[in-house]
Amino acid sequence: MNLLEQLKNYTKVVADTGDFASMIAYQPVDATTNPSLIYAASSDEKYQPLIDEAINYAKSKACGDKKDMLHCAMDKLAVNFGLKILKIVPGRVSTEVDARLSFDTEATIRKAHEIIQLYENAGISCERILIKVASTWEGINAAEKLEKEGIHCNLTLLFSMAQAVRCAEANVTLISPFVGRILDWYKKDRGVSEIPAAEDPGVKSVQDIYAYYKKFGYKTIVMGASFRNTGEIIELAGCDALTISPALLSELESTKAVLERKLQPENGVGDEIQKIEMDEKTFRWMMNEDAMATEKLAESIRNFTKDLIKLENKISTML
After folding, report:
1. Average pLDDT of 53-68?
2. DSSP-assigned beta bridge partners for residue 154
3. pLDDT confidence of 62, banded at 50, 70, 90?
4. To the nearest 5 percent, what fractions of the chain are helix, strand and coil?
5. Which letter does DSSP use for residue 177 in this model?
6. Spatial contact of 35 and 311, defined as CB atoms under 8 Å apart
7. What letter does residue 149 receive in the DSSP assignment?
8. Using CA atoms, how far apart are residues 129 and 152, in angstroms rounded to an integer?
9. Strand segments (E) across the chain
10. 3-318 has which CATH code?
11. Which residues touch 312 (CB under 8 Å, ≥6 apart)?
């Protein structure tokens, strides 16, 4: 078997793309999207009907001024992609809340309700949706409230144990630790061009989170994300889930080798892992002491916002 076939025996494989053809080709269980992926996909003519439908929807709703109409169209476009994806994957799709709401708990909750309502209007149960929220203190608080309502959440832009512990205590459905972006930071910090996969700080971060969750019996799913190479994926074989880009899925599929399962549910159970008592002061202090996590969280929110604004500008001209 190739590496992808073997990986699917140990780990739920999730497609990290907005491209439907890739999903059909690699048959993932779930799929994730974000503003950057949707913006990239929106440049392809085959996705124009999804944009046109979102534009017409916003106009028909008479959402108010142009700003309200734009937000209406953007939400519908994200959901349109999600609806198409759900015709391909048997599981769930993650749809992201506006990154500019990352520090506003109540606004995040309102936006999540609007997204879920759009899916339900199309006949899709909230059980098949993950609301994707940035792992800020405010974002995690929003997710905690949403989970209590039965709305499942994917906490993204996660770079630290502080974020992971708070997410677990909030009983969120799933977290997405960003392996490759952690690697990027450490390569730059150390002034090196490569770090072996077995020593990759992003890989180590996910291993530590996985072990902590298993040690203390947390049910939150650990889904490694943002990979830079297949070596990182191989080191995390056995993780609850991994969301992988089409390029890396292709590389795994074309490689014939034996894949060793590296992560097991019993990982960490016998280790001397100390329980972290998490509150807001502890969370903010741990983030403050972790330069990588603080910088990458802020940078990632800025970058998602940039792509969101690019997409908004494109949609705005069509309104």
Report:
1. 84
2. 132, 174
3. low
4. 60, 15, 30
5. E
6. yes
7. T
8. 7
9. 12-16, 30-32, 93-96, 129-134, 153-158, 174-177, 221-224, 241-244
10. 3.20.20.70
11. 70, 74
DSSP 37-59: HHHHHHTSGGGHHHHHHHHHHHH
Closest CA to 197 of 214, 175, 182: 182
Q: Residue 125 burial by CB count (10 A; 0-12/13-18/19+): exposed, middle or buried?
A: exposed
Q: Looking at residue 266, what is its pLDDT?
A: 83
Q: Minimal CA–CA distance to 158: which of 95, 207, 223, 112?
A: 223
Inter-CA distances, 160 with 203, 208, 227, Å: 12, 10, 16
Which distant-in-sequence residues (6+ apart) come within 8 Å of 250 by Cβ?
Answer: 26
- Residue carrying structure tokens 């949707």: 38
Q: At what angle do helices 201-216 and 161-169 cross, to 10 degrees?
A: 30
The span from the CA of 41 to the CA of 59, in Å, is 23
Neighbours of 307 (CB within 10 A): 17
Beta bridge partners of 153: 131
Tokens found for residue 179:
């392996």
Q: What are the catalytic residues?
A: 132
Q: Does residue 279 carry a pLDDT above 80?
A: yes
Whole-angstrom distance, CA of residue 314 vs CA of residue 319: 9
**The token pair that represents 285 in the structure block:** 């202090």
| pLDDT tens figures, 186-229 | 999 999 999 999 999 999 999 999 999 999 999 999 999 999 99
Strand partners, 94: 32, 130
